[in-house]
Design goal:
Elements lengths: L5 H37 L6 H42 L2 E2 L6 H14 L5 E5 L6 E4 L7 E5 H6 L2 H17 L1 H38 L3 H35 L3 H14 L2 H11 L10 H4 L20 H12 L12 H16 L28 H4 L4
Parallel strand pairs: 2-4
Antiparallel strand pairs: 1-2, 3-4
Helix pairs in contact: 1-2, 1-6, 1-7, 3-5, 5-8, 5-9, 6-7, 8-11, 9-11
């Protein structure tokens, strides 16, 4: 297998982003042609299928500039307001250092250590354990974490999650995912309009055909029915392609983001622990699949896993163990939030009594390597290969 490293991935994402935009216009033109076919099918005046297809092609050409302009406007609106739309959907709100000093300082330190411009930081009130990054350029990039993630992960684990999302931003994954969502939105919108018009037109055609003679109806309706069928197939293909585009985005981006998080934090155990805590707890009710595909984990199982945008947590943890030398504690059972709150007073009482606090042992009973001063870990990119 050829080496596939960070810079290869970044270049590939740039090419894919450009290809996705070109593909968007192709799909829009395909939908316009389907609309022209449908119109000619409803207006069938007894000509052959070939003649009607030729007329539909001629009808489409004047509509191409209008469709191009409408698509450009859609892209500009999405480019400018996609973050506001996502915030309205998820309820995410921006926080400052004063409001969230713990979270803000973790992100700021990561950005300073690698000279990365700091994205906006947002919190979403949710019982799910998850986080995601959005944006199309440095002025728009933001990282959103759920409130439950802050409550149930320690500082090292939260730092690993933030580093994971920073790597997505650095690699260009975020831009590519937003463009893919825009494409799916455009095609779904046009497809819905198409089918609404088709069904209404079909009802009217059905009423009018009832008053015509049976011989005239069969003569005039045969070619038109074929064209309408072709139009439906083309719309279905365009819609399916827009969905497959999102599914076809390489799952390797999650492996590389995990590896990038380890490179930033030098702590593979923290990334593994974060993934294990998130495992099975990342589903955010009321959030669309388009947003879930941007998250740290997008849980899927069974047949749905064939179309999942993320590899399983087990596969990602296994890659970190093999490539970065991390230790896997296995699936974790987390206490319920009520149990956590009930335990907090006992901890504070122990601190007030002046009793010495022993560090919590790791899974194997030994102190974590991440807590030992001077411990370093090999950079994962040395194993993945930096070059293209």
């Amino acid at each position: 297998m050829a080496a596939y490293g960070l810079y290869t991935h970044i270049r590939s994402n740039r090419r894919r982003s450009a290809a996705l935009l070109v593909g968007l216009f192709f799909l829009v033109y395909l939908m316009v042609f389907a609309g022209a076919l449908m119109a000619e099918g409803f207006l069938d005046d007894g000509q052959s299928v070939n003649e009607l297809v030729g007329r539909a092609w001629r009808d489409m050409l004047p509509a191409v500039p209008v469709a191009t302009l409408a698509t450009l406007i859609w892209i500009l609106i999405a480019w400018r307001f996609h973050q506001a739309m996502i915030d309205a959907l998820t309820g995410g709100h921006e926080v400052t250092r004063r409001e969230q000093p713990r979270l803000y300082n973790l992100l700021e330190n990561l950005c300073i250590s690698r000279g990365i411009p700091m994205p906006r930081l947002k919190i979403m009130e949710s019982s799910a354990l998850n986080a995601f990054a959005t944006g199309l350029n440095e002025k728009q990039y933001s990282i959103t974490v759920t409130s439950a993630l802050l409550d149930r992960l320690d500082d090292a684990e939260i730092e690993a999650v933030l580093a994971h999302e920073l790597t997505h931003i650095r690699n260009g994954d975020v831009r590519m995912m937003v463009i893919a969502v825009i494409i799916a939105g455009v095609i779904s919108f046009v497809a819905e309009i198409f089918f609404r018009v088709m069904f209404r037109g079909g009802l009217r055609m059905g009423r009018s055909s009832g008053s015509s003679s049976s011989s005239g109806g069969s003569r005039r309706g045969g070619s038109g029915a074929v064209l309408i069928l072709i139009a439906v197939v083309l719309v279905a293909i365009a819609w399916l392609l827009s969905i497959l585009i999102r599914f076809a985005l390489s799952r390797s981006r999650e492996f590389l983001a995990d590896a990038g998080a380890v490179e930033l934090t030098k702590n593979p155990d923290a990334m593994i622990m974060a993934l294990r805590k998130i495992q099975g707890r990342g589903e955010m009710p009321g959030v669309t699949s388009a947003v879930m595909e941007m998250c740290v984990d997008n849980p899927r199982s069974g047949f749905a896993d064939l179309f999942a945008s993320h590899p399983s947590i087990d596969r990602r943890v296994d890659a970190l163990v093999r490539m970065a030398g991390g230790r896997d504690p296995g699936p974790l059972m987390l206490p319920e939030p009520d149990h956590i709150d009930a335990a907090a007073p006992d901890e504070s009482e122990a601190a007030d009594s002046g009793a010495p606090q022993e560090p919590a042992p790791s899974q194997d009973g030994a102190q974590s390597d991440a807590a030992r001063p001077g411990t370093t870990f090999p950079g994962p990119w040395d194993r993945f290969g930096r070059g293209g």
